[in-house]
Amino acid sequence: MANNKGGSPGARSPLSLVVAMALCCFFYLLGAWQRSGYGKGDAIAAAINHQAACSDNPSSSSSSTAAGLTFETHHGGASTNASSSSPAPPEIFPACAASLADHTPCHDQDRAMKFPRKNMVYRERHCPTGAAAGDRRLRCLVPAPAGYVTPFPWPKSRDYVPFANAPYKSLTVEKAVQNWVQYEGAVFRFPGGGTQFPKGADEYIDRLATVVPFNSGHVRTVLDTGCGVASLGAYLDSRGVIAMSFAPRDSHEAQVQFALERGVPAFIGVLGSIKLPFPPRSFDMAHCSRCLIPWGANGGMYMMEIDRVLRPGGYWVLSGPPINWKANHKAWERTEADLAAEQQRIEEYAAVLCWEKVTEINEIGIWRKRSEPCPDRPAEARACDEANQDDVWYKNMEACIRPPAGAGAGGELQPFPARLTAVPPRIMSGSVPGFTAESYEEENRRWERHVAAYKKVNYKLNTERYRNIMDMNAGVGGFAATIFSPKAWVMNVVPTAAELSTLGVVYERGLIGMYHDWCEAFSTYPRTYDLIHGNGIFTLYKDRCKMEDILLEMDRILRPEGTVILRDDVEILLKVQRTVQGMRWKTLMANHEDSPHIREKVLYAVKRYWTAASEDSEEQKNTGSTSEGKGSEE
């Protein structure tokens, strides 16, 4: 179709009317979904799945032409030309078995037991690898459990989680005295307690705040090791502090799943044998509340890993054994000699790291990392190899000390929220190739334009509708900074395949994130993100792994009725759009905000609401059988 450049400005072609009707249908459905109440699902599912407004309209197709884009005019070569032969129907991905509702591919419990227990290796990531990996990947859609409902909005979600979303009661019994979680009929209630703070996290944080300056904005990012249900992070949020919490998938069933259902940043992980997926100098504080990590073992390796990710001037908080062992050894059922020796080793390694012990408050010990180079570090302390400080993905942890950062690279940060928009020290020092202060600020302006265009399609982007957000290819955090709100948080992922390692910049802005390889599954439970954003992610991985595998992983971690926003080349997005037609997503393609002639487009998608129960019901209705065993790895 040729452009109508000479026609009357008031003329309307039949195609334009079709386009207008298609867009009206999409916005009607999107509006119905956004206005739906929390803790529901049926009303939203009816609007999206049954397409009530568009069921009799032939223009309601999710093709690119129906979305108003004429690729054959602007981008010759796309596969939407009406004169071409009709393509084969897209692959329809079946539902997985209901038993796989909590499937975590790289943290499979059966596979974990085949690995050594030393240094918690068996609790680390173990993804399907080798030639048979493709055969062991699920080629199905992980279902939501029967009765799944939309989580409560923040901050109500901090205290209440629908029972149907994570129907596991073991922690209500195991941790009853410590006030982790209580079962109250249709919901779990989280009183805010923890192993070391049964009276609640607020009271505990108040005690820490007598030493750690939470209120000044200088402590913004916190690493919580062995986090339980992440109540520390949940209650730090109201003080303008964001915590990255992690715990293994172990006998404490669903602890990380509960954290994410509450709307608290968390991932499945352990301090074991490989480095944490963060760059040096990421956190203002690290915390362990009876996290069962042997800090004095392995030559101080775990304390040295904390030192690696802790900023100069940052705090390390150790709560529980062996602190104040003289008063607690009987309650901990350990000998005085054992506890005294453990604390002695911790004190010695802290001295090697030049951490100053600030105080002990009952069972809480607080150390601070020096801001200046250590003048009297022991000669026997081994320095780490500085070949590439950011290369940590699947790299073995070492019992070594990282030398101070180069001049300017670890410069002083402004207090939050000023650091969100200030030029980060890594940019100012030239530590990120290709970035200057000027180009960094232009990058931020570019994301302001992008997000302004997003909001024209989805006006709920900066509201309580989205709490858990992921950016799959975060760059310097432009998207997260632009949509920043106390109502939401963003997991900024910097792919290991990215040309530049920019995660350090993300942390210097007061944001959080981690490294990840999108050829593998993410370290989280299914249904943990409300919105997933991806900029150029499929171009980045087009020669590395299958597009379908990445999309299936996105579907796994996206909540029912969650949103996806993808920016990429038009040819790639057309393939994505075609693939997700078989994944129960509804899509809309949109032009670049600057010009329809730009090859970069934006694909908006909404995942339909469905559960294992509805799938079984439909299966029985159609075939007289159930979906049990579908997609199972067994």
From the structure above, extract its key features.
634 residues, alpha/beta, 7-stranded mixed beta sheet, 17 strands, globular, disordered N terminus, disordered C terminus
Give a quick summary of the entry:
With 634 residues, the chain is of the alpha/beta class.
The percentage of residues in β strands lies in 15-25%
Q: How many strands, which pairing sense, and closed or not: the largest β-sheet?
A: 7 strands, mixed
Radius of gyration: 26 Å
Biggest sheet strand line-up: 6-5-4-7-8-10-9
Q: Give the low-confidence spans.
A: 1-12, 32-84, 623-634
Overall morphology:
globular
Oligomer: single chain
Number of E-state strands: 17
Distance between the termini: 52 Å
Average predicted confidence as pLDDT:
85
Count the DSSP helices.
Answer: 22
Structural class: alpha/beta
Provide the helix percentage. 25-40%
Task: Please give a structural write-up.
- It is globular, with a radius of gyration of 26 Å.
- Helix 1 packs antiparallel against helix 2 (42-49).
- The protein has a seven-stranded mixed beta sheet with strand order 6-5-4-7-8-10-9, with helices on both faces. It has a seven-stranded mixed beta sheet with strand order 13-12-11-14-15-17-16.
- With 634 residues, it is α/β, with parallel strands linked by helices.
- Helix 17 links the parallel strand 11 (468-471) and strand 12.
- It has helices at residues 14-35, 42-49, 71-74, 109-112, 133-136, 156-159, 170-174, 201-208, 231-236, 255-261, 301-309, 325-328, 336-352, 418-421, 425-428, 437-457, 478-482, 503-508, 537-540, 547-557, 570-580, 612-623; strands spanning 160-162, 182-184, 187-189, 221-225, 242-247, 266-268, 283-289, 310-319, 355-361, 364-369, 468-471, 489-495, 512-516, 529-535, 558-569, 585-590, 600-607.
